[in-house]
Structure formats: structure tokens, C-alpha cells
Design a protein that fits this description.
heterodimer; A: about 250 residues; alpha/beta; Rossmann fold; four-stranded antiparallel β-sheet; B: about 325 residues; two-stranded antiparallel sheet
């Protein structure tokens, strides 16, 4: 039996008359990469925000490791072990690369309200931070100002910050977005290795990446999950091809 | 050594040499000007924690400056009238001792900042500016309409308060005292900037969502920063009132808040010594241009405009280049 790490049950969200999330249930099991795909406007971003706690759901529950976190905000959910990366890089751009990962390590360890000890000399935090940088291949850029990083490096840094959290589950919102062929290849390698550490809910547009990585795929169309299954099943499913991949799609 | 360090040291050197020279030449007025600059610099360093590090544009810091001033005024006026502040349930007497006055000023302005911050920090952007302004104005009008402590006319203290071992009425000694306070505040602030709290606060300014997503609540960071910021500005208010031996609602006015902000903008936002350089330039302009025209603020406005348009990092930003993240 596999453990369910992240679970959504019957999530609902409406904006006025528009039902953006319509009774969505999904689960991310330990050791898997679960991809969530869907055409533009399917409600992926809204669903992500409901999972992270940035948006309150009209109905339904979110559970992390069997614990109900529905009533918790984003800060508490992060503290409970939901690590995430953002569609648009959310980093402290004026800070160095190392400072960004140290912040992550600090959030994980606690002790933010220390006013006198220099944080960039804290060995315990630096170890976690450097380790995370090494894993995404940014060790050499540690002292670079974050705004000077290339787009691809910023995406890697996002993952490094998520790694410092030693999260129970990763929620990655389009980590491939804007990456070139080579960058996407590196990111795919990186995510493949992460799966053993914590399962990943991967929201992604890049179908090559999704089919290369995912153990299971859920398809979201107009706020509903119309199918969940192994990549081969999804590939063969006629309904999805019509709804999403287009009539002429060849995969 | 980094260029910014050199600029900082030069700034401190100028701030020491000018009044010492004036002392040798027997020019007490210049010493008083330097003391004003030092005290304004402390106020600016306080605000810079909220505004520069935290990104919290507060237009209500005169409230804390004035509360510090009134802490001094109220305690000293009771002491000089030999009338206790209250007798029941326990006796509280006035005092002419600076250390006690400073403590009262810091604690009362910190409490005010905690209360104002707790409410204001639920908003952001323009709303935050407006709500801090509104709180500041509330306290301003409260002081005006409180006749027990002088109302609109303010409170006069005849003799400057004392500090153990010093003759505070001697301008150079009072300057030295204020300068020491500035140095201690700057040292503490440099530690805070490099601490865990400083990193989290600066990150929350740049990207609050990032801070949230690693499990840190930006609201709590900002509230602590705002409280500390108010406390430091309150301390400078107590010194300012002691310099003038006078406190009035002018210290609480929103123009005062604006002036403190101007120090930071001239010197360099979020730079440790930004408000120090800013306050020095402000005092210099006030002194030099004030002699030329009563309307010297026009020139100040022009200078501000130039800085905002062409040198956003203020004087330090222009001289030292952009900030290096860390060594």
C-alpha cells in the first residue's frame, strides 16, 4: 500500500457565477510525480492557490500526510511541509543566491527573531543552504546577486529553496516555463531525482516533460478532473485528445 | 574595503571634526547644528529600519518622535515643578535624569508603534501611508488639545536634563553624548541588518510570497520592525526635546514625518548611513540656504526631485554603486 501524502477532496471554488474549481479530488502518493495538465483557463492556477492556502475554498478539504490543513493559511501549510515553486519566480531579487537559500533554511529551522548573530555565518543554515545549491548545480553562483541569474538559473534556485524545506510534498507550478531545450533537460533530470525525497505535484504545460517524468497524470478541463491515470492511458484517451490536445494531436 | 565603508567612515569623521573644530574656535552655534544633525540622524536610522529594510513607508513617524519628546517634557516639567505625575495607587515622580527619560521615551514610543503597527500593517501600499499619517495626526491633535501639558504652546524645560558624570549644558559634552547614542544605534542596526531577522525582513520587502512559502509570516516580521523603528525614533525625540529644552506639537506634525523621510531619501534608502548623510546635508542646506531665503524649501524640493529622478540610491547610492549582497 502506498501512502497518500497530499490529498484534495471535493474542492470547490467559484468567482461569481463562474465555477473555476468544480469538485476536484486528487491525491499525490509517496514516491510519485503526479502531473496536472489542462488547457489554458482550465483552473490550474486557482487549484494551486487552493492547495497552498492562498485562496480559501468554498468547499472541500486539503490534507497533508493525513492531517487536515484546510483551515490553515500559506505560512502554516509551508511549515507543515508543503514545499513549492512558483510559475513566476518568487525570489528576493536584490539578495544573493546564497541568501535566498539561507532564508529557506531559516524558515525551516525557525529562529527568525534573532537580532544580533550574523545569519550568513550560521554554520547549520549554511550547510543546508550549500547542500541545496549543490544539488541544483548552483554552488558556483552562491554569491551572485539573484537578479543577475539567467532565467533558467532562477528556476533552479526556486527548486533549491524548496529543497531547504525538506518538504513532505513538492508543489511545482510550471518549473519548465520559459526554459530552453537544454534547461528543460536539466530540470527534468533534477526533478526525476527529487521524487525519491518527496512526491511532486507537477503543474506543467511542457508535454515532453510531463510524459518523461509523470507516474500519473490528471487532466483538468473547465475546473473538473476528467481523467487520472498512467501516462500511456492518458495518451490513448480519446476524450482528452479532443478536449485538450486537439483533434489532430499526435503524441 | 568596500566603497560604502569608506564613505561611512568619512561621514563619521566629518561629523566629529566639525563640532570639535567649532569647539576650538568657540563657535557653540555650529556645535548645536551638528547636534541637531546627529539627533535627526538617529530618527532617520529608526525610520530606515521600517522604510528601507522593511519597505514600510510610514508617514506617521513624527508620532514616535513626538512621544519621545513629550516623555522628556512631561517627566522634566513635573520634576522642575516638584509635582509628582501621580500619587495614587503609587507615587510616580518626575525626573531630570536622561537615562530614565530615555528608557521611558523608548518604551512609550515602542508601545505606540506596536499598537499603530498592529492595525496599520493589515494594509499595504498607499493605504499604509495614509493610515500611519492618520494615526500621526490623531496624536498631533491630541497633544494640541491637552492643556495640562501646554497644548498648542508646548512645554518649556528650563535646565537641560542631566547625565551622570557630564555637564550636559556644555554644548560639546551634549554633542558627545548624542554622538555616542548615534554610534550605538548604528552599531546595533548593522547587527540587525545582518541577522536572521534582517534577512527575513529584507526578503519580505522584496517578495512577501517567498517568505510565506518558507513558513515565515511577513506580518510578524513587519510588526517587530515597526516597533523597533518607532522606539529608536522615540529615543531621538527625547534627545531633540532636550537639545531645545522645549517640546511642542510641532514635533508630532506630519511635516516632521516628511522631514525624517527626506533624510533617508537624500542619503540612500536602506543604507546604514543613508539617514546620517541625509540629516547632515539637510542641516547644512537649512543653515546655508535658510540665510539666503525664507523659502529655502524650494531648493530642498529641487534637490529631492533630482535625487528621485537621477540618483535613486541617494548620495550613497551615487557614490558607492549598488549594494553588494554580502561578503
Amino acid at each position: 500500500m502506498t501512502d497518500i501524502i497530499l490529498q484534495a477532496r471535493g474542492l470547490q471554488k467559484s468567482f461569481g457565477a463562474l465555477r473555476v474549481t468544480d469538485d476536484v479530488s486528487l491525491e499525490v502518493r509517496s514516491g510519485e510525480i503526479h502531473a496536472l495538465i489542462g488547457p489554458n483557463g482550465a483552473g490550474k492556477s486557482t487549484l494551486v492557490q487552493q492547495l497552498t492556502g492562498h485562496l480559501e475554498s468554498d468547499a472541500g478539504q486539503v490534507a497533508l500526510c493525513g492531517q487536515d490543513v484546510t483551515s490553515l493559511g500559506p505560512v502554516e501549510r509551508a511549515a507543515k511541509g508543503l514545499g513549492r515553486t512558483f510559475q513566476i519566480s518568487a525570489l528576493a531579487m536584490e539578495n544573493s543566491v546564497l541568501q535566498n537559500v539561507v532564508l529557506g533554511a531559516l524558515g525551516r529551522r525557525g529562529g527568525v527573531f534573532r537580532f544580533f548573530a550574523p545569519v550568513m555565518k550560521d554554520r547549520a543554515l549554511l550547510d543546508v543552504a550549500n547542500n541545496a545549491l549543490a544539488r541544483v548545480g548552483l554552488r558556483a553562483q552562491a554569491k551572485v546577486r539573484t537578479s543577475d541569474l539567467s532565467h533558467g538559473q532562477r528556476r533552479q534556485l526556486e527548486v533549491a529553496v524548496a529543497l531547504t524545506q525538506s518538504p513532505k510534498a513538492f508543489l511545482m507550478d510550471e518549473p519548465m516555463a520559459g526554459l530552453g531545450l537544454e534547461g528543460a533537460g536539466q530540470m527534468i533530470d533534477l526533478l526525476r531525482k527529487l521524487r525519491a525525497e518527496a512526491p511532486i505535484l507537477l503543474i506543467e504545460h511542457d508535454m515532453d516533460a510531463v510524459f518523461a517524468l509523470a507516474d500519473r497524470i490528471s487532466v483538468l478541463v473547465y475546473g473538473k478532473i476528467i481523467a487520472t491515470g498512467a501516462p500511456e492511458d492518458i495518451r490513448r484517451n480519446r476524450e482528452i485528445q479532443l478536449a485538450y490536445l486537439g483533434k489532430e494531436a499526435e503524441l | 574595503m568596500r566603497r560604502e565603508h569608506i564613505i561611512n567612515l568619512v561621514t563619521l569623521a566629518v561629523l566629529v571634526v566639525v563640532p570639535l573644530g567649532a569647539w576650538v574656535l568657540d563657535e557653540p552655534f555650529i556645535i548645536t547644528l551638528a547636534t541637531r544633525a546627529v539627533i535627526f540622524a538617529i530618527a532617520g536610522v529608526g525610520l530606515n529600519l521600517a522604510l528601507g529594510q522593511g519597505g514600510l513607508v510610514s508617514l506617521g513617524h513624527a508620532a514616535f518622535f513626538g512621544i519621545g519628546g513629550y516623555a522628556m517634557g512631561i517627566l522634566a516639567s513635573h520634576a522642575q515643578a516638584y509635582a509628582p505625575l501621580m500619587e495614587w495607587p503609587f507615587l510616580i515622580e518626575g525626573t531630570k535624569s536622561m537615562p530614565i527619560i530615555w528608557l521611558v521615551a523608548v518604551v512609550s514610543s515602542a508601545l505606540a508603534a506596536l499598537a499603530i503597527g498592529a492595525l496599520s500593517l493589515r494594509t499595504s501600499g498607499v493605504y499604509f501611508i495614509m493610515i500611519t499619517l492618520a494615526f500621526g495626526q490623531m496624536i498631533y491633535y491630541f497633544a494640541i488639545s491637552w492643556p495640562a501639558y501646554g497644548g498648542e504652546d508646548g512645554l518649556v524645560v528650563y535646565v537641560r536634563n542631566g547625565f551622570p558624570g557630564l555637564n550636559t549644558l556644555d554644548p560639546i559634552q551634549f554633542f558627545g553624548l548624542c554622538f555616542c547614542v548615534l554610534c550605538i544605534v548604528l552599531w546595533a542596526m548593522s547587527r540587525v541588518q545582518n541577522s536572521a531577522f534582517g534577512l527575513a525582513l529584507a526578503s519580505a520587502r522584496q517578495n512577501p510570497v517567498r517568505v510565506q512559502s518558507v513558513g515565515i509570516d511577513p506580518y510578524r516580521l513587519r510588526l517587530v520592525a515597526f516597533t523597533l523603528s518607532g522606539a529608536i525614533t522615540g529615543l531621538s525625540g527625547a534627545l531633540f526635546a532636550d537639545l531645545n529644552r522645549f517640546v511642542s506639537p510641532t514635533m508630532l506634525s506630519w511635516q516632521m514625518s516628511g522631514e525624517i523621510m527626506v533624510f533617508i531619501i537624500i542619503g540612500g534608502v536602506a543604507r546604514l548611513f543613508g539617514p546620517v548623510i541625509g540629516a547632515m546635508i539637510f542641516i547644512l542646506l537649512e543653515h546655508v540656504l535658510g540665510g539666503v531665503s525664507e523659502f529655502w524649501h524650494i531648493y530642498l524640493g529641487a534637490l529631492l526631485l533630482m535625487i528621485v529622478l537621477f540618483a535613486k540610491g541617494g548620495v550613497i547610492g551615487a557614490l558607492a554603486g549598488r549594494e553588494v549582497a554580502h561578503d
